[in-house]
User: What shape does this take?
Amino acid sequence: MTSLKITAKGQVTLRQDILAHLGVEPKQKIEIEKLPHGSIIIRAAAPKGNISDFIGCLAQESGPVLKIDELAEIASQGWAGEVLTTSGGHHEIAR
Assistant: This one.
């Protein structure tokens, strides 16, 4: 068990090993849930974002451009557990 000191301002500093255990880095947020009988749960806060943050995150400057039906086939084969291989910039389904 880890013991931490409370500062005169009522603050607590979490050690780096605890932050690493939570998977958080500086400037990221944590959540604290108050439980009965003076206990708390501390966890990494779920990242907040919106769809505009996601749009384009997979864009590449080079590589093949796939049609929607090609993407659908790749996705369905992936969900079926078949291995995806890349050959000369083209995606192929290993059968």
Remarks:
- The chain has a mean pLDDT of 81.
